[in-house]
Specification:
about 20% strand, C8orf32 fold, alpha+beta, 6 strands, 5 helices, four-stranded antiparallel beta sheet, globular
């Protein structure tokens, strides 16, 4: 479904996939293993480790023309086990990272934006995670591997959806 209704439908699909993903003991174990070397209860360290791990195991590929696909987190995790990485677009990477973060108790939002110069429809998604100790949200952009944690693309419109 195109347009604003389509992005809402996509975010609802992501929300459903994350809801089931955070109950998957293998995904919880994956998140625990990733943060095992972090200082205990250090939000910045845990979030940074999870974010970097996803970046290191993710290869961007577009969806088929005219079709919005979102992979299940367990499928992406299986691809990592089999070939060392998973492939997908911004909504796939956001779904997987949100599952890892939320399985460890982090509060996460999906953020959809319209990118200037590409028309006005919503075209991109990334995450915001809540840092409770700092009482602020931190942007997690998985498709810009050369940008630091906290960076987000410029946008002409934005919507946030709690996951």
């Amino acid at each position: 479904m195109p347009g604003d209704n389509g992005i809402t439908q996509t975010v609802n699909s992501i929300r459903d996939l994350v809801f089931y993903g955070i109950r998957d003991v293998n995904l919880r174990r994956r998140a625990e293993n990733i943060v095992a070397s972090c200082l205990e209860r250090d939000e910045n360290s845990e979030i940074s480790c999870l974010f970097q791990w996803v970046l290191d195991h993710y290869r961007y590929v577009r969806d088929p023309v005219g079709l919005e696909m979102v992979k299940e987190p367990g499928v992406m995790d299986g691809e990592i086990l089999k070939q060392g990485f998973f492939q997908g677009d911004c909504d796939d990477a956001s779904t997987y990272l949100a599952t890892l973060l939320m399985s460890l108790g982090y509060k996460v939002k999906a953020v959809v934006i319209a990118v200037p110069g590409k028309g006005d429809p919503y075209r991109h998604i990334f995450l915001r995670v809540f840092l409770s100790k700092a009482n602020r949200w931190l942007d997690l952009e998985t498709t810009a591997k050369n940008k630091p944690i906290g960076w987000a693309a410029k946008f002409s419109r934005i919507r946030e959806y709690p996951l």
